[in-house]
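We emphasize that the prediction below concerns an isolated chain of 350 residues; any contacts that depend on oligomerization or on bound cofactors are therefore not represented. The input was used exactly as deposited, without trimming of termini.
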Amino acid sequence: MTTTTEDTEVASPARTEGPSLLQRLSVRPEIGAALGALLVFVFFSIVTDRFLSPLGIATWLDDASTLGIMAVAVALLMIGGEFDLSAGVMTASTALVTALLAVHAGWNVWFALLASLVFALTVGAFNGWVVMRTGLPSFIVTLGTFLALQGLNLGVTRLVTGTVQVSGVRAAAGYESAGWVFAATLNIGDARIQASVVWWIVLTAIASIILVRTRFGNWIFAVGGSLPSARAVGVPADRTKILLFMGTAFAGWVVGSCNILRFASVQANQGVGLELHYIIAAVVGGCLLTGGFGSAIGAAIGALIFGMARQGIVFARWDSDWFMLFLGVLLLAAVLVNNRFQNRAERVRR
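Result of the prediction step, given as a token string:
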């Protein structure tokens, strides 16, 4: 008995094709932010010539860098399902610890930096421990930490210096070498690229690798998506979330170190209010407020949009009040786009 070609074709199993490259790209969390960044870039490139000048590029990269360092760490924490409202004031707290020890206690700057790092990591671990131990919302816990750190910053600084400012770090031992690490400038033509830009790029790359290439990255998505389910499959949820809080504290230390060594002075109320900007940048970059979805690269792009828009408005000689309108519209648009991308991503995975 012979088998016809038609019979063979009918009997062969149907081939199922996976999602195309375009479909896979369209569900990436950072795609919306990348398109938004492109639009902002093109818009201000047309509106003002200064935007694409070497000085202009260096300016908006500098503006975005410290915001981007924090936004990347906050994004990882948000993917893990938590918030840190003390992230902004932490940048001032770490800078103040470094400055007070270096200027008023006579410490070498490197030892002062190490002490401020230990302080930051301790506060971050405390935040994570309290959240996981008590089950309280991280919004409430870190709001309490925010208020405590703000009061500590003002009280200790005024007690030691009689003012709300610490300066004079340039005269401390170890400033030159520490300044090279955290506050050096790289001259590329007429552009002066700050060390914070390098820190931003490096930390974004590290965070992205951790998020998509490591077991810990899988744990972050798991605890943010469903904490009970993550625990049921053996994910060390407590350790994961505590480390994420420590990550935002570390980012605050990096930003605080860059600021104090670059400007050689710090105000006790510095950084207050910026925590909302970090969250907005992370949301613009693709993070959901409900956790379990987001991208470190997207958060970095969200910060880049901030820097380009804020400096573009200055270059165009517009009233800076328009920036707040831009933030509000950007946040609402990002939330709508991110929800759509998440729904599409779930359909593609099926």
